[in-house]
Design brief:
Blueprint: H1 10-21, E1 25-33, E2 36-41, E3 46-51, H2 53-58, E4 71-75, E5 83-88, E6 94-97, E7 107-111, E8 115-121, H3 128-141, E9 144-150, H4 157-170, E10 175-178, H5 187-193, E11 199-203, H6 210-218, E12 228-230, E13 237-239, E14 243-246, E15 252-255, H7 268-273, H8 276-282, H9 299-305, H10 311-318, H11 320-363, H12 365-372
Parallel strand pairs: 3-5, 8-9, 8-11, 9-10, 11-15
Antiparallel strand pairs: 1-2, 1-4, 2-3, 4-5, 6-7, 12-13, 14-15
Helix pairs in contact: 11-12
The structure holds guanosine-5'-triphosphate (GTP), magnesium ion and zinc ion.
Magnesium ion binds near residues 210, 211, 239 and 255.
Length: about 375
């Protein structure tokens, strides 16, 4: 396995020059084990690595810490010495979740990926508003969005097609494909995106089939068991850690745990950015308080009429304020929960402390007697 097959390019090479001189080697992070990382180097050798104190301290927030997909400068240790990440190269794309508020809440899902594949289905998982949020954050990442309407074997053709069309209507730039990890429908098409060194990360709700798709793409010979947990009852394997997998015939796939709360991944600015073109149109409406309904001289409606703006996108735009309000409500609720939890933790701590004081008092009555004097 060459560095190019791992996603290395000239820009990284240029940035790496000073590190070559120090005897460090390029490595790509493929797994985040909380304290250590898995890393792949030229030739496909895998190392378990730790980050240096400098890399840790230089990071101003969590988002600047090394993440899966990052390229790093690695000092390999011999004997008992650890393999150490000495530097992280600049990210060429960065797909991250960002909750409003403290910058520490930004978390990198995958670094240096060309494509983010959002996996959903035409049934219970289907949700256009959630898709909208995904497109908003992918738009900011520098990666291309594709959507896989998976589990097509479970739903009538018509339903799959309608789901795909509805998604295309809100994201004309995204490629939308109807797939089935079960019978392999359209998986060749995904191979089409995968040149050597191209990385795709898979995101979407738990259970939509991200890991199954990756296993299908890997082919029968190379079944891969990511880090999984047995879900009680259904016996389903749910992914618990991000992991980067290099395909034998070229291309890189990154699996992710299912996403519970994509609404928390974004903020008002990101949501608005997605509709900037429509906001610009709105500025051209005849009346500044235009409701974009039946008002005369509405620039948005005339754009829909002349076909330059899709109906579904306009509807998304009209729901935007509602969406933002909902986002803010949720954030407030979470804030309250966080505060409540902090208070509760504080109480527990206080109680534990009190218990210990009582204990101390029983054990060492003399000290307490003298304290009370
Ligand atoms: N019928 C059908 N079942 C599928 C398909 N893809 C996945 N499944 C099944 O759906 C279940 C969940 O699939 P996974 O691949 O584990 O889903 P995941 O998105 O990786 O889930 P998390 O790791 O929890 O995020 C498994 O029982 C799969 O066998 C499909 O295309 N058709
Ligand atoms: Mg999985
Ligand atoms: Zn208008």
């Amino acid at each position: 396995m060459t560095l190019t097959e791992l996603g290395w390019n000239e820009t990284f090479e240029r940035e790496f020059k000073p590190f070559h001189k120090k005897g460090w080697i390029p490595a790509r992070l493929i797994r985040d084990n909380k304290i250590t990382y898995g890393a792949l180097t030229d030739g496909g050798e895998e190392y378990e690595v730790i980050m240096s104190g400098k890399v840790y301290h230089d990071a101003r927030c969590d988002a600047e810490l090394p993440a899966v997909g990052d390229w790093v400068a690695l000092e390999t240790g011999t004997g008992d010495l650890d393999h150490v990440i000495r530097a992280r190269l600049n990210r060429q794309t960065c797909f991250s979740r960002k909750a409003p508020g403290k910058s520490t809440e930004e978390q990198v899902i995958a670094a240096n990926v060309s494509i983010v594949a959002v996996v959903t289905d035409a049934g219970t998982d289907f949700n256009l508003r959630r898709m909208e949020r995904f497109f908003a954050i992918i738009g900011r990442s520098g990666s291309k969005a594709i959507v896989l309407v998976n589990k097509s074997d479970l739903y009538p053709c018509e339903q799959n097609r309608e789901a795909a069309e509805a998604i295309t209507a809100i994201a004309p730039d995204a490629d939308v494909h109807i797939t089935s990890a079960k019978d392999g429908t359209q998986l060749d098409l995904i191979h089409g995106y995968l040149d050597a060194g191209v990385s795709i990360t898979f995101v979407g709700s738990s259970g939509v089939g991200k890991s199954s798709l990756i296993n299908q793409l890997l082919g029968e010979e190379f079944q891969w068991e990511g880090e999984v947990n047995e879900v009680t009852g259904k016996g389903r394997q749910t992914t618990t850690a991000r992991e980067l997998i290099v395909l034998p015939e070229g291309g890189i796939l990154i699996d992710n745990p299912g996403i519970r709360e994509v609404q928390m991944w974004t903020d008002e600015t990101t949501l608005r950015e997605r509709f900037q073109d429509i906001e610009d149109l709105a500025a051209q409406c005849k009346f500044h308080d235009c409701k974009h309904g039946s008002d005369t001289g509405c620039a948005i409606r005339s754009a829909v009429e002349d076909g330059s703006l899709g109906t579904a996108r306009m509807e998304g735009f009209l729901k935007l304020e509602e969406e933002i309000e909902e986002l803010q409500k949720r954030l407030k609720k979470r804030q309250v929960n966080v505060e409540r939890r902090a208070k509760r933790d504080h109480k527990i701590k206080a109680r534990n402390l009190a218990d210990r004081v009582d204990y101390d008092r029983e054990q060492r009555p003399d000290r307490w007697v003298s304290d009370e004097d």
